[in-house]
Design goal:
Elements: H1 6-12, E1 29-37, H2 43-49, E2 56-63, E3 73-79, H3 86-100, E4 105-109, H4 113-117, E5 121-123, H5 126-130, E6 143-144, H6 151-163, E7 168-173, H7 175-190, E8 196-201, H8 219-240, E9 244-249, H9 256-265, E10 269-270, H10 273-278, H11 283-298, E11 305-310, H12 313-316, H13 318-333, H14 335-339, H15 344-354, H16 357-365, H17 368-375, H18 391-408, E12 418-423, H19 425-428, H20 434-452, E13 458-463, E14 473-478, E15 483-488, E16 491-496, H21 506-512, H22 515-520, H23 536-539, H24 544-550
Parallel strand pairs: 3-4, 3-6, 3-7, 7-8, 8-13, 9-11, 9-12, 10-11
Antiparallel strand pairs: 1-2, 2-14, 4-5, 13-14, 15-16
Helix pairs in contact: 3-20, 8-9, 9-21, 11-18, 13-16, 15-17
Bound molecules: 1,6-di-O-phosphono-beta-D-fructofuranose.
Length: 551
């Protein structure tokens, strides 16, 4: 980036706001253990898998007696999809290390977990950090989705950490990456190596949260970026009065992004995957909801509208879920035979022939592009790459068919034209909002303090996020307390539980109580673009979900 925009230059100078306790000299910040935090389920199995990491207390920081300064050497890696604020986690780590001792060092592992396994590293210097402060992206050190799972990979990761003389490794990632962090911490401990592993909760999807972790970083910026764009489309729709906009939003599994964007913009229709699953809705029922809305608005002369579709929806429609599970099993069991097939049509035929009855019928009813997208490679953690499945186009084609039937029997007299959109990558590397810039810097700082306190197998956290940053409460909890046992790739594995949208929670209730009004009116809400300067209510407000959950 040889030429920087004025905003880019100005953001370097932004000083993140931090919880009051983090302004103390680091020598006077003490880690105070609280109660033991246990996992909610699968305790016995997890105890066996994590004998060294099980039964550990929560930790918070207090003002204590000054302790002796000791230089630390930390490694950091960014894992999974980018999320705005990742560079500030590194800045927070770096600054905290410098305050602990100027002799401290930070090493970055390039390209995610594979950088640790293959020992591809780079020193993180003051000059480097200063050229990335408060900017989006993960490009300072890069990221990747490698899953550390074989004994060789674990041994190589440990060898790298020892070669660099690390006191601790900080893993910045989502649920899968932090599961990896927990496994690494357990492995290091089982080898009696005193190298800490500390996680940091990242993901724009917002599904790495629980009673301790109020939000994952990046969610705030990503949803504000999408909401600005959706708001703009909401203004275009009644201006042009000729298109229905089908907008698919990222969020691999949970619908937090779609829910937040719906609260921010008030679209005519928005689906929440968790509700679709709970109500056991079929693809045909989803199509019917859209067709009914199109038809009702057409009768008012409004042949336009806005629909939000979470990208994970496809996996939450029960019949599609059964189909995807069947395809996953086939792709695992018959991996070699499948890979040797020359073309897409051969692959589709291979799958079609082997699917059980109802799934075979459903698969056959889907457009060829969707069939192909369902057969594409899974990610290294065994997940379908839903960002590549064009659910919005599938719905458009089915809604068109349904409207044609309704028109034929005279119950629909409108004109249906459409535009499709997918919003995902546009928001993952945006300049972090003030909220994410502050939150990430504080998380980096807290992760460094946990590492100094020897809290291995912990994830850094900041609580009280709906209040001003000075009132935030930093701390940590054991990663194992967030885990359960799930079937992955056909085998039972310990994984961090994904936090789905709670249908009895306040954010969903706020949405559900208003959606019928939004369906018919064109009373859209226009959030506008992210602001960095001006009144705090405009620049620093956290997401609506966070505000509602903490109200
Ligand atoms: P993380 O969970 O790793 O943060 O990634 C989330 C995400 O942005 C999803 O919303 C999306 O489905 C996926 O990454 C896309 O992944 P990729 O970058 O590999 O295309």
């Amino acid at each position: 980036m040889s030429e920087r925009s004025p905003l880019h230059n100005v953001r370097f100078a932004y000083i993140p706001k931090v919880p009051e306790i983090l302004n103390l000299p680091t020598a006077e910040i003490q880690a105070l253990p609280g109660d033991i935090v246990e996992p909610a389920t699968d305790m016995e199995s997890l105890k066996k898998i994590f004998p060294h990491s099980y039964s550990k207390p929560s930790v918070r920081f207090i003002h204590g007696e000054p302790s002796e300064a000791k230089a630390l050497k930390l490694g950091v890696l960014l894992s999974g999809g980018p999320a705005p604020g990742g560079h500030n986690v590194i800045a927070g780590l770096f600054d905290c290390l410098g305050k602990i001792s100027p002799e401290s060092r930070l090493v970055g592992f390039k390209g995610g977990p594979s950088g640790l396994v293959d020992d591809k590293s780079m020193p993180i210097t003051a000059e480097l950090v200063d050229s990335y402060r408060n900017t989006g992206g993960f490009d300072m050190v890069g990221s990747g989705r490698t899953k550390i799972e074989t004994p060789e990979q674990f041994a190589k990761a440990l060898a790298t950490a020892k070669r660099h003389g690390l006191d601790a490794l900080v893993v910045v990632g989502g649920d899968d990456s932090n599961t990896n962090a927990a496994l690494l911490a357990e492995y290091f401990a089982s080898c009696t190596e005193p190298i800490c592993v500390v996680g940091v909760p990242k993901t724009i999807d917002g599904d790495l949260k629980n009673e301790w972790i109020e939000a994952s970083f990046g969610f705030d910026t990503a949803t504000k970026t999408y909401s600005e764009l959706i708001g703009n489309i909401c203004r275009d729709a009644p201006s042009g009065r000729k298109y229905w906009h089908f907008i698919r939003l990222m969020g691999r599994s949970a619908s937090h992004i779609a829910l937040e964007c719906a609260l921010q913009t008030r679209p005519n229709v928005a689906f929440i995957s968790e509700e679709v699953e709970e109500k056991k809705m079929s693809l045909a029922q989803i199509v019917e909801i859209i067709a009914a809305s199109v038809s009702a608005r057409a009768s008012k002369g409004e042949n336009f509208g806005v629909i939000l579709i979470p990208e994970g929806l496809i996996e939450f429609i029960p019949e599609m879920k059964i189909l995807i599970t069947a395809i996953n099993e086939l792709l695992t069991k018959e991996a070699e035979a499948f890979k040797s097939l020359p073309g897409v049509s051969g692959q589709i035929a291979f799958i079609s022939e082997r699917l059980p009855g109802t799934s075979a019928l459903l698969f056959a009813s889907l457009p060829a592009e969707i069939q192909a997208q369902l057969c594409w490679d899974r990610d290294p953690h065994g997940n379908v790459q839903v960002s590549r499945i064009e659910t919005e186009k599938l719905l458009v084609s089915m809604v068109r068919e349904r409207l044609a039937t309704l028109a034929a029997d005279g119950s629909y007299k409108g004109k249906f034209d459409f535009q499709t959109h997918f919003m995902g990558y546009e928001g993952r590397c945006a300049f972090p909002t003030n909220f994410d810039a502050d939150y990430c810097y504080s998380l980096g700082f807290a992760a460094c303090l946990l590492a100094r306190a020897g809290c291995s197998g912990y994830i850094a956290l900041i609580r009280n996020l709906a209040s001003p940053a000075s009132e935030w409460i930093p701390g940590g909890i054991p990663l194992v307390s967030m885990m359960n046992i799930e079937c992955r790739h056909g085998a039972d594995k310990p994984v961090i539980r994904k936090a789905l949208v709670e249908l009895d929670g306040k954010p969903f209730a706020a949405f559900a109580s208003q959606r019928e009004t939004w369906a018919l009116s064109s009373d859209y809400r226009l959030p506008g673009s992210i602001q960095y300067f001006g009144p705090a209510a405009v620049t620093d407000a956290p997401s609506m979900i966070l505000q509602l959950e903490r109200s």
